[in-house]
Amino acid sequence: MTSKRPPNPFSADRPIRSKSEDLLGRATFAESLAAVVEGWTGNDSLVVALYGPWGIGKTSIKNMVLEHLRRGGPDAPTIVEFNPWQWAAQDQLAEAFFREISLALGKKDKSKEAKKLADTVSAYAAFLKVGTHMASGLRPLLAFAVAVAGFFGLGGALLNASWIRPYMAVGGFIALAFAGFIRWSADFAEKAASAFSSLQKLKEKSLQETKAEVADLLRPRRSPILVVMDDLDRLAADEVRVVFQLIKANADFPNLVYLTLFQRDIVEQNLEKLTSGSGKDFLEKIVQVGFDVPQVEQSKLQRVLFAGLNEPLADPKFSKNFNPGRWASLFPSGLAPYFRTLRDVYRYLGVIDVRISGMAPRGSFEVNPIDLIALEVLRVFEPGVYHLLPGSKKRLTRLYDSRTGKTITEVEKEDKLRLDPLIGAAHKESRAHAEEILKQLFPKVSTGNQEQFYRELRVCHHDVFDRYFLLSIPEGDISQADLDALLASTSDRDQLVSRFNELRERGLLAVVLDRLEAYKEKVSLADAVPFIAALFDIGDDLPEGQPGMFAISTWMHASRIIRWYLMKEPDVAKRRSYLAEAMRVSEGLYLPVMKVAMETDAQKEGRIASERLLDNASVDDLKQILVEKIRKAAESGRLAGHPKLGTLLGIWAEWAGPDEPKSWVENFTQTGEGLVVFLEAMTDKATSSGSGDSVPRDFWYMQLKVVERFIDPDAVASRLEKLKPRGQNESQIRALKAFQEALGRRRSGKPDGTPWRDWYAED
């Protein structure tokens, strides 16, 4: 179905102009209303009212009524669309009303009878114009006369007359009257000349005679004159009263039909403010036939909504996270009740169009389509709720731990408190619907569903939440476009490494490995070798990630991705084959070594086969492959410059025995440069916070027992004394200092360990 929404998507109030635009099946009702107008031949006027709230489509129905009437040929009614809004002064309304009728008659029908009727109606308007100008012109003069009389003590009777009091101001009536007089002297002569010129058209006839002549000329017409007055509910109370008094005063003209459109309760309330009786009774004395705008069939309204949503969301990049089952659960009870009129639909579609286009800046949709649709419903129809959401991130997205031991009642109470402040901000009449939306948007996030929620880009996930409210990807986060590009490159190792390196340059490599964990089971096993090899390639120089003992390191994220990715393959032999081939083609050392080291730990811990990625034989085979890679790196010189030299030396010693790494270190430390690089590799960092520290402190230290695995510390000290090397950077300077401190500790009899307590004691 093609959407027929307005050309300007923000024009939610734009009515349709033609039956061809009717999406709600109201054309038949409009034609029936047109038939009422066409069939009127009474000796008095007919006053028809079309009732309905704002946005329900009154003007659209009116336009279809007029379209139908204009197709009636020569016998079609003469249509006058009279807008009371255009006339600021109430006393101009009657004259303008009949002038508009006269002009319409002159344009539509060029016959002698029509011209005579137009001239007579014009003369009638001129008569009303004379009264208007005379009344407005004489008011200041009367005020001035009364003021002067009062000043000379001659105006007691005038001053006490109730009709003159509105023109008097306490303590300043002479000045006010004089000002009025000045205005009168400047304007009244011109107005009077115009008015009396118009009176010449009346040819000495009275107002009643002129009105009777108009009625006589209207009576034989074959079609009525239709006067349309729209949006009367938007007028002020006194303006509403004047309009209906005008209709009432001229309701005895034959072949004259009034079609008025307004929200009934608003007009009744306005009339009640200015009449002594009931506004409803006042209206019923004037309106002869009233129609309510037919209720819209929800199925038709929803067709328009769905067609509008389908336009931008039909592209697979938008719809890939669209879950039909979830939509079927959310829409009927949560979203549908907010769309009661076509205005509601168009108002919403104008907003959602902009949001959707802003959420795919690089070709990938950065959010979940259902969540975005639901959040925009809250933004448009429940702004009080929506404005609270950005500040409620922590409460709405926190990770729920099912192991807390809380009872079901306690959990339900906690969940209620989580959403209650938001639900309370909704409109009272729609609170239940807002509650349903919030419950479905923000389910409890647990370790069992958080990765799925991230893959689906759900607003309830902590790392996705901000995207919905910032209109962009938060600084320091990775876009869905970047993730999609990575996932599309898993079959091409070189391309994947290139994309990883681009993200490294933007400072996003640690973030992407964290986010990629959610997709580790979604990469095809057909891409296992290039995918794992690319991870091995980047594993030698991974960023540190978040500091602190509880943070998961970047290499650990990469290792977890590989583990859970390969666990999809039930055959252990194939897992070993994928890893072995990736190790052979990759130049990376650190990540494959750490991956196998973790499997060695699992082997030592005696974990059951179902919990292990590899069996014992596979682990032993992979160790041999990696030892050979380390040997080649040592021979080529790559090992000397490796950022993880210390770890690799330790693994080499553990898996191949101490002799080979000892021999390599002995040769490597013969130069000052090699000695400093080795000590740098032996240096560790500890981060700790003391009671007086406002931020964590980093401490650099060295354990001589680790150094002793490869070389005698005294031999190192002797070479330092002989070669006197200098550190080339801050890291090397720290290493030289750490070695001297460790050596001093040993020589003073202190144990070899992590010495931050001593440093705090020294502070």
Derived from helix and strand composition plus strand pairing, the structural class reads: mainly alpha
Strand residue percentage: under 5%
Gap from first CA to last CA? 76 Å
The major β-sheet equals: 5 strands, parallel
Overview of the molecule:
With about 775 residues, the chain is mostly helical. Helices cover about 55% and strands about 5% of the residues. Strands 2-3-4-1-5 form a five-stranded parallel β-sheet. A two-stranded antiparallel sheet has the order 6-7. α26 packs across α28 (about 590-605). The longest helix has about 40 residues, at about 110-150. The chain is rod-shaped, with a radius of gyration of 44 Å.
Gist?
The protein is mostly helical. Helix content is 57%, strand content 5%. The strands form 2 sheets. Strands 2-3-4-1-5 form a 5-stranded parallel sheet. Strands 6-7 form a two-stranded antiparallel ribbon.
Keywords, separated by commas or semicolons:
single chain, 763 residues, mainly alpha, 5-stranded parallel beta sheet, two-stranded antiparallel sheet
